[in-house]
Write a structure and sequence with these properties.
Blueprint: E1 2-4, H1 16-26, H2 37-51, H3 55-62, H4 66-78, E2 93-95, E3 98-100, H5 101-112, E4 115-120, E5 125-130
Helix pairs in contact: 1-2, 2-3, 2-5, 3-4, 4-5
């Protein structure tokens, strides 16, 4: 599915309200699910566009506990989607301002520890596997519950 990120979604001038509104535009079925793991994880990933993938900054910005943020951050770094100081979300966009929700939600699954993303050096691309069946089972230390 492809969606447009609202014009007001500026990485420099984003507040939590705008991130939440954007998330609901991407998936209106999330309305009323603010306590759900999927909602919180998606909120965290979108928020990383505004404040970088730093545990303290993300926890403060999203108002989520550090205990929730830290394992997600580690999974995203292990999957090479984030570094210590930067996040990679270019693959979410298929054209200028056109957002591919499929890639975004796949990264949410990685962040939750349900899917593993690893580089396939033979092919030169990243591959995604169900966490239980990933080669060289890079099992996630903790799943977000």
């Amino acid at each position: 599915m492809i969606a447009a990120i609202p014009r007001g979604f500026s990485v420099k001038a984003t507040d939590l309200r705008l991130v939440k509104e954007t998330l609901l535009q991407l998936d209106p079925s999330l309305a009323g699910t603010e306590e759900d793991e999927r909602y919180k994880t998606a909120l965290l990933l979108l928020s990383a566009l505004a404040c970088a993938p730093d545990t303290t900054r993300l926890a403060e910005f999203t108002q989520l506990p550090r205990e929730f943020v830290a394992p997600i951050r580690q999974r995203m770094i292990r999957a090479q989607l984030w570094t210590e100081s930067d996040g990679c979300c270019n693959h979410w966009y298929v054209a200028d301002g056109v957002f591919c929700t499929t890639f975004f939600w796949l990264d949410v699954l990685v962040a939750q520890g349900l899917v593993v993303r690893q580089s396939d050096e033979e092919v030169g691309e990243y591959r995604y596997w169900d966490e239980e069946f990933a080669p060289q089972r890079e099992r996630c230390d903790e799943r977000v519950n």
